[in-house]
Structure formats: C-alpha cells, structure tokens
Predict the 3D structure of the following.
Amino acid sequence: MRPAENAQLALLLEVSGTPKPGNVDRERDLPDLRFEDFLAGAVGAGAGLRAAESDSIGIAFERAVEGMADLHGENTQFGALLLLVPLVRAASEGDLSPAGAERVVRNTTVEDAAAFYRAFEHCSVFVSDPPAEWDAVDVRRGAAAIPAVEERGLTLFDVMALGDADDVAREWTGGFERSFRVADRIEELSGPLSDRAATAFCEELARRPDTLVAKKHGEGIARRVSEQVAAFDGNERLLGALARVFVERGINPGTTADVVAAGLFVALERGVEA
Amino acid sequence: MRPAENAQLALLLEVSGTPKPGNVDRERDLPDLRFEDFLAGAVGAGAGLRAAESDSIGIAFERAVEGMADLHGENTQFGALLLLVPLVRAASEGDLSPAGAERVVRNTTVEDAAAFYRAFEHCSVFVSDPPAEWDAVDVRRGAAAIPAVEERGLTLFDVMALGDADDVAREWTGGFERSFRVADRIEELSGPLSDRAATAFCEELARRPDTLVAKKHGEGIARRVSEQVAAFDGNERLLGALARVFVERGINPGTTADVVAAGLFVALERGVEA
C-alpha cells in the first residue's frame, strides 16, 4: 500500500481498537461523536493524505481536514491528521525516521502556516487560550489570523513550537518520539492490529496524562485519569467499566489516540504483520 | 463526498453492521477472514473506485480488486466491488437509477470482460462449474480464458448474463433491482447506518436464499438459512446465536452482504442522513 493508504488504514484501525476508555471505538459511541463519524472522517481525509505525499504540507493538511469534516462537520481526526501528514511525506520521501520526520516539519513555510489556520474554519477544535502576546495569532481566529502570522513570518513549525501544552504540537517539535515509540510497541505485541492499538493506547495514557483532557478538565484530572488506567493494568473488564465513567464525565483522551494513529501508520509502513 | 468516497464508506458501513449471521462484522471475525481485512480491503479498493468514475468499467474493477487484495490477498469485497463499480459510474454520469445503471453495464465491451477475467488472478473467488459448452470461458481460468472470450466476442455484460445462478450477476442483468430496494429500505429505517445495514441484510436474506451459500452448501441449505433468519425476525439475541452456528458450519451469506453494500452506496449518494 502507498503511504496515504496506510495512513487511512491507521485511522480505521485506531478507532476500531477497544476498549480505549473515554474514546469512541467499535463498541462505544460518544453522545455527539460516533464510530460511523470516524469511518466517514477516514474516507474523507483520503484526498488530503494523498496530497501529503507530494503537495505542500499545509495545503495537504487543510484538504485532509476539509474532507474529514465534509459529511457531518465533526472534528474526528484533526490531531491525528496533523501527525499523519508530515509522516506520510517522510515515508514518501523514503525516510520515515525521527530525523526524516523532523526534516519535513522544519522545512514548513509561512504558507503552510496560513493553510493550517484555514483548516480551523472547517470544524471546531478544542484549544486553550494562548499567552496574551500571541493573541493575534490564536488558531481559533482561523483565517483571520493569517495577516498577523505573515507579518511575524511564522512557519507552521514555529506555530507548533508555540503550542507546547499540546502533545500533538510536541510531537512536531520533539522528533515524533511517542509516535515512533508506539510503532515499536505495536510491532512487539501480537494479535489483531486494532487490539494492539487499544493496548498501546492504555499504556501511553498510563504513562503520560492526555493534553486534551488537561485542557478541558485541568491537569489534576488528567493525571488522575492516567493513574486510573495504570491501576487497571490491561484488565479488559475494568477498563470497560472505566470507559463508561469517562464517557459520562466527558473525559476524552483524544491526544493519546492521535499519537496511536501515528504509531499505527509507522508500524504499517514498516510492514507489520497482523 | 464524491461517488468513489461514498462507495468506500458503503463498504465500511456494511462490514460494521451487526449482527449479520454468518458474516464478518465489527463483533465477529471468521477463522480465515477478519474485520480488519475488510478495513484494509476498503482502503485498497479506493483507487479502483476513483477510476470507476471515468475509466473503463473493467479496468476500474480489476484495479479495485487488485488494491483490495494487496495487503493480504484475501477476497473480502469482490462481489460488492462488482456492484459498486458500475453504480459509481452511473452516479458520476448523473443518473444513479436502475435505467442509468443498466446503461452503464450494457455499454461494457470485450476489453472490460478481459479485465474482469484478469481480476480473478488477484484473489480466490468461489464460483460454480459452468455448463460444459462454456468451459473455455470459465472465470476460474483467469487471464488464460481471455483468448476464448475475445474469440466469442463476449462483453462483460454477456459474461454476467452467463452467471444467472449468482445474484451479483443477476443484479447486472436485472437493473440492480435488489440494490435499489435495499437503498429504499435503508432510507426508510432510522438510527446509525450500520445498524440499518444489518437490518436490511437480515430482511434480504430472509426474503431470498443467498447464492454464495447455495453454491457452497446446496440450495436446500441456502433455503433453510433464509427460513431461520426469517423466523428470528430481527431478534438481536437470537440472530447473534444463529451467527455462531453459521460461522461454525462455514455458512457465509456473502452475496446478500454485497447487495447491502450496493444499497448503502445508493442511499449515501441520495444523501441519507445518519
């Protein structure tokens, strides 16, 4: 399969993995977000993922998000696509390694940043308040922030470097460390890939609080979520019960899922056998 | 979404629907065929489905099957793609109706037939023995049968007309009657589309014995399967129990699933709301 296809398959395998406490999976819908929305998101992102093999990173990302949100306007895989687009490019350039991915993101331009801001027009994305001096380039302004981005000469990499409380941004500026770690773990595990993805999700969440949960509910809750998942140590029945509690409380560790999707992609590119 | 994307989504929604006694769904793998194989099949078929919007029907089908089988060489959606490819073309020509679909299939050529035979080289497809006089053009000969196909001047439509014991072929020669009926039913039902697909599957199977089951196990068993599904009349628990029995006995009503995938596509093209 070509890189864009492996990226699409990674999105589908990620959402199929169960149980992943707090997130949508093949057995659990959230009140406002369903398994089927993720299927439609993965299909709609296809053209943007294909563009990521050769077009500008920003344009490819915007197109992927636009396609993802096309059917229902839902944000299902915004963060995952933000990781997958540069990884697809690195793969199609023949160097899917931390160094190869870092080269791709460091080569992004101000035009890539502008396209990234336009992507926020296609669906709603949960983002924290930036520091006051960065208010003019708050991503929630969408395309309206582009003149300020251009004036300051910010590349997409620069924009990501501002988002250090977000673990998707941190992958961009930190050599995709967790994405590659998850890929190693998925290769090491056995069984169906979506089962391995669910295991890797729980392990990653236990290891590090989810930044989407932290932004929505505070860092204390995010830490507690990680401790609870760690305490249940892979017990499927207990994790299923925890899933019900998390869903009731609106606790949705989406950033960890994004990292797992990226790890699945890397593992698929390396030819992992299901 | 463009037609090729709706076709890909139809494949994903079809396999996600549960319970569908005897078939793979999001809760059930078969011993040799898994839910994840169907995800990979839908992803891999994408390029062929896009080709179906404008390329030759036969070439598009061959490409879709080649992509479907790329990762594991499994036949997951051969029959569904044989229905979807002409329906995608009819949709992209702006006439997704029985008449529009019939025009597409009646316009197929000997070259389309040749590509269809080549598609059998990419994965194994269960087919019955043809009558003796058609032995030279038995599809199981794959590309080796092409000289005989060309000599007899058979178009792909002609080849389908030979396959009247197969309900996918019967859709081709009968105006896609069941595909459009399933689309109507899916629009009429409510709830998530994959749930509606599972309901439509059981209703269609109750109404008409599955030709794949008939070819593998005989017409008596195929009739009995339909009677059992009819008797359980939508009771999810009983249908789940039946699913276990069917899987144990290798009873896999795959043709009915193909027709449901086609019906889902038509419903999506008509803008069905999930």
